[in-house]
Backbone:
């Protein structure tokens, strides 16, 4: 089983000391008495039968289990309440949670460390419907091989993400829809094929970075920015970047937020000339 | 050059854009009263009820509700 790794280089004279620590564990909190399929003093770790697992689990109140290969229900020794759960696994041995709008989706509150999470191809449906979930983790896990981000964080409370490696992702369909973003991070979208509904129903989403789509081959942005609250700079950033990518015959939807400026409108004209269909806020 | 444009309809208006031969659906969505549609395509059908729009899409093998 994987464990946290600490590395230190010490110089006895005390002139220089460098110390770093890498936490390879997957760490998250749960509210065990929220509504779910397990009892009020329990939490079930949901896995996907299409994947293989080998992991250990421990909790902040002393529960431990080892050599787990699928779903596992924790019974907290201290009873119901808020608990921290730690999963230890090698990279590839815990590729994905799998809530998919069921199970104890309302019990998971926050992921504070991704550690060795990931290593597979798909993150489809994994946190879908985890309405109370936020991400406070600052590490990036192992998303570099993921190609499918379909509905990954749909209907969660996620408002921020670390700069996870999404350079292999082709489908972002509804990946971040109905979340709580105000500012979206500068993720790598260079392999993307579809952004269908990706950011829709983020009614607080105001800020979106420039140049996000410059090297994206995607042409499907239908409903991507429906019911958002983009600033004028943000909608301009988006339209100019999609135009820069140079793709033809695409679709794009925005509603809510600000109308594009002359800069954004010029990008719309350029895109339409290349066969695009665009809806936007006026 | 824009071929078709619809701005600030009085109610949400659904649309389907076809290629010039009206064989292939090229785009589909809706325009809100607070929005505009700009499209390259000349052949655009507009619907004031979503069910009519949906029926045409389904008849052409497209399910936008999936």
Residues:
């Amino acid at each position: 089983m994987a464990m946290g790794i600490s590395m230190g280089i010490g110089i006895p004279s005390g002139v220089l000391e460098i110390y770093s620590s890498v936490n390879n564990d997957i760490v998250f909190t749960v509210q065990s008495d929220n509504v779910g399929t397990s009892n009020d003093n329990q939490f079930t770790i949901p896995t996907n039968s299409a994947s293989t697992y080998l992991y250990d689990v421990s909790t902040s109140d002393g529960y431990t289990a080892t050599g787990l290969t699928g779903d596992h229900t924790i019974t907290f020794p201290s009873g119901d309440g808020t608990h921290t759960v730690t999963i230890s696994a090698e990279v590839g041995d815990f590729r994905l949670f799998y809530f998919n709008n069921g199970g104890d989706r309302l019990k998971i509150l926050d992921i504070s460390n991704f550690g060795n999470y990931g290593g597979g191809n798909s993150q489809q449906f994994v946190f879908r419907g985890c309405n109370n979930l936020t991400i406070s983790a600052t590490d990036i896990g192992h998303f570099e091989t993921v190609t499918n981000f379909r509905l990954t964080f749909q209907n969660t409370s996620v408002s921020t993400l670390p700069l996870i490696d999404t350079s292999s992702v082709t489908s972002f369909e509804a990946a971040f829809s109905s979340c709580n973003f105000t500012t979206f991070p500068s993720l790598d979208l260079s392999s993307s094929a579809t952004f269908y509904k990706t950011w829709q129903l983020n009614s607080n989403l105001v800020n979106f970075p420039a140049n996000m789509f410059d090297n994206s081959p995607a042409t499907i942005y239908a409903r991507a920015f429906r019911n958002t609250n983009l600033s004028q700079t943000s909608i301009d950033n988006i339209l100019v970047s999609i135009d820069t990518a140079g793709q033809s015959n695409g679709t794009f939807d925005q509603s809510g937020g600000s109308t594009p400026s002359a800069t954004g409108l010029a990008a719309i004209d350029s895109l339409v000339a290349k066969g695009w269909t665009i809806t936007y806020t006026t | 050059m824009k071929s078709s444009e619809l701005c600030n309809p009085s109610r949400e208006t659904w649309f389907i854009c076809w290629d010039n031969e009206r064989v292939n659906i090229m785009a589909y969505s809706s325009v809100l009263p607070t929005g505009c549609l700009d499209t390259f395509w000349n052949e655009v059908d507009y619907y004031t009820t979503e069910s009519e729009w949906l029926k045409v899409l389904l008849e052409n093998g497209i399910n936008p509700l999936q």
Notes: The mean pLDDT of chain B is 93. The interface with chain A takes residues 1-3, 7-8, 17, 26-32, 34-41 of chain B (CB under 8 Å). Residues 44 and 56 of chain B are 13 Å apart (CA to CA).
